Amino acid sequence: xxxxxxxxxxxxxxxxxxxTGIGGGVLMVPFLYVLYAQLAVPxxxxxxxxxxxxxxxxxxxxxxxxxxxxxxGLVRWREAMTLAAAAAVSAVLAAxxxxxxxxxxxxxxxxxxxxxxxxxxxxxxxxxxxQPLEGRxxxxxxxxxxxxxxxxxxxxxxxxxVVATVGMxxxxxxxxxAIAPxxxxxxxxxxxxxxLSYLLAPAGALPFGWVVGRVDFGHALPLAIGSVAxxxxxVRLNRRMPVLMLRRVFALVLLLVGTDLVWRNLLS
Length: 268
What we know:
By secondary structure, the protein is an all-alpha fold. 76% of the residues lie in helices and 1% in strands.
């Protein structure tokens, strides 16, 4: 039964990843929380294990989605790599502060921010901003976007793709068609770096095997199979959708992520 459900969740993750450029942790992490509760994993260990395992699944999913965008000329590589480098540095620094930051308030605030962005995307009919930034301005602003991407990922355990896509739209002013593939390029780097750090971290005794560091490869496998298989379908949907519809789908995903963050912190 677990394999069937995990494959289904993985398929949804792959669709969302290929379609919007968001990693899909908003689906995987709650699913893994429920799984680990049934397996009697302590809540403190389950949280880290779920985040680490989700990141490990996101890496091949993002790579598969990025390969499916090959040939379309949509990836803004300079912005993607600059943003990813800034995010990596920011994540390392923010990780040291994680224990001193009130994560519940931050999660709720970030969730409200995403709800505001979702409302703006749904209500506006015209493109926000002018032409995409180019040259030095693009590089500078990519660094400025990358800093909160890494910091929020480290402090809140949210996927960097959520923040990156919002920053690409409002700050870098990328065409909407370029946001998802460029975000996937960022996610490949940031998720791989995060997964590596979790792989090297020591873990306590668990009631199941095939765990390296904090990454649960045994339960990640069916999730990864489903997500990698479905990512190209998400890319096809992205390429066939009109820009206005694509923007609304992206807004609905942000609405779900924001609602989930606010709701879970109200209950905790």
